[in-house]
């Protein structure tokens, strides 16, 4: 097994474990993650509570397992929605010419002027949608523009095919690889965004559990009970790292299939 293959397998194992926790949730938790226990507040890690307890006596390990659901949903669903919207807009911008292409891209450029977290805060406060709707549109458009001038698209234009046929039959199949890689990057970033918003108090409301919310609640007890923040922070770190390693491995696979050059628009701005 090559080093790159081992990297992809290790990342897939971590992601699989996180998805398993997200799907099964409380069924895997050793304790009820929301049950208060005044006699067990701020207990250090022990055999009964491997990751300790929080100020309300709740088991931290059970909260980490259960909190995976919201964090993973925030990552996966937001990227899926962003992928769908971004692909459509990106394809439209890639195949369009003249004023329409300019209007679509100038609108997205205007949104990208704002710092990413500020824009995420604004979107969360007013629309509740993902920043990746905008970012993916930029990235996909970059790949579509490069494909638009390739021989098979030029031949399609010469044959008199309409734009819709060129878009769905010729362009879309050729951006599948870059979308897969970008989705892997995007899920990790979306999980970090959810954690940031929850830490700032703009995430899921209590008593719903998420890793970001745990990080916020544990911050006040960082010196007294560091295990609360360390546990949730470690979960975020490992899962985000796994998605980044998976994306990096997939990127190299795509590059080898494409002839050695890494796909455009994946790590850059498109």
Give your account of this protein's structure.
By secondary structure, the chain is an all-alpha fold. The chain has one domain: MetI-like (MetI-like fold). Helix content is 67%, strand content 0%. The chain has helices spanning 3-24, 60-95, 99-112, 116-126, 132-148, 151-158, 163-171, 176-199, 211-219, 227-258. Helix 2 packs parallel to helix 10 and helix 6 (151-158) packs antiparallel against helix 7. Residues 129-138 and 263-270 have low confidence and may be disordered.
* Mean pLDDT across every amino acid position: 75
- How many discrete domains? 1
Determine the CATH superfamily.
MetI-like
Order of H and E elements = HHHHHHHHHH
Helix content: 55-70%
- The tally of helices reads 10
Rg result:
22 Å
Distance between the termini: 33 Å
Shape: elongated
Unreliable parts: 129-138, 263-270
SS-based class = mainly alpha
For the biggest sheet, the summary is:
none
- The CATH topology name reads MetI-like fold
CATH class descriptor:
Mainly Alpha
User: Got a strand count?
Assistant: 0
CATH architecture: Orthogonal Bundle
What amount of the residues lies in strands? under 5%
List the helices and strands and how they pair.
Layout: H1 3-24, H2 60-95, H3 99-112, H4 116-126, H5 132-148, H6 151-158, H7 163-171, H8 176-199, H9 211-219, H10 227-258
Helix pairs in contact: 1-2, 1-10, 2-3, 2-5, 2-8, 2-10, 3-5, 5-8, 6-7, 8-9, 8-10, 9-10
